[in-house]
Amino acid sequence: xxxxxxxxxxxxxxxxxxxxxxxxxxxxxxxxxxxxxxxxxxxxxxxxxxxxxxxxxxxxxxxxxxxxxxxxxxxxxxxxxxxxxxxxxxxxxxxxxxxxxxxxxxxxxxxxxxxxxxxxxxxxxxxxxxxxxxxxxxxxxxxxxxxxxxxxxxxxxxxxxxxxxxxxxxxxxxxxxxxxxxxxxxxxxxxxxxxxxxxxxxxx
Length: 204
Fold this sequence. Notes:
50% of the residues lie in helices and 14% in strands.
């Protein structure tokens, strides 16, 4: 089974590309969604212990947590030490499930693929990218997004140029969605001929 790492900075279109993989019948695990689920479950207690007052009614209040992190950016590392091992465990479980069902390709979708050292657990890396202007326009159009929040997120992410340099494949999303979908389908066809180099015992 070929394990594909799908990444891209905020606003580059990674989620849209991930959905195109799903629509093509390929399993995708979304690290961001796993974090969201953890904020309603396993991560609540340790986050409250590390960031008092950031949970409400047994769930992490993302607004309160974001405010705490913006007030003390160094504390991002503390949060990562809580969340990342839990996300990696969920990704491993997903790969085991896909392997058992006989999948030929499985996708790990993560905005921090390089930053959290997930890259060494995949066979190939696909980077989703767009122009700086397109990225900024998309992100600042989101509800509740501010320039300050956007810049804080960018600081934590590897620059797009460096991600492109490390990529095995690049999907450019500056064009219409139907054009991007054509690129994704062509990539999937190419990936069916790539052999896995990740030891299967890592997730079998």
